[in-house]
Amino acid sequence: MKTQTNDNMKCATALGGLREVLDPELSLNVVDLGLIYQLNFEERSKEILVIMTLSTPFCPMGDSIVNSVKNNLTAGFPGYDVQVSLTFDPPWSYQMITKEGLNFLNR
User: Fold this and answer.
1) Which ranges of the chain does DSSP label H, i.e. alpha helix?
2) What is the pTM of this model?
């Protein structure tokens, strides 16, 4: 699934950093899992707005994953305030995993 954004260059940098944020149960990063739906960068207010999902609404590690996303982006973009919103629309499915993620899971 391709992440929607209003700034392709900053989004590429952010996604590179978010590849360090792992789902603890699968040991696969949130980008290759397809959990990051949207990253918008608001220059005037110095905010990063993240819309993401979890593999299930009842994910026991959900708070940890969301906090890791926020901390990673805060470290990668000093001076920006990071706002993370969870959505389950559309619900996550295995079809959202990238080719690289599937290769990782199938080894």
Assistant:
1) 8-18, 62-76, 99-105
2) 0.95
- Cα–Cα distance for residue pair 13/62, rounded to 1 Å: 23
Q: What share of the chain is helix, strand, coil (3-state, %, to 5)?
A: 35, 25, 45
Spatial CA neighbour of 2 closest among 105, 11, 10: 11
Give residue 15's pLDDT band: very low, low, confident or very high (50, 70, 90).
very high
Which residue in 13, 24, 107 sits closest to 65, CA to CA? 24
* Domain-wise residue ranges, the chain: 4-105
pLDDT digits (tens, 9 = 90+) for 47-95: 999 999 999 999 999 999 999 999 999 999 999 999 999 999 999 999 9
- Which CATH architecture describes the domain 4-105? 2-Layer Sandwich (3.30)
CA proximity to 30, closest of 22, 42, 41, 38: 22
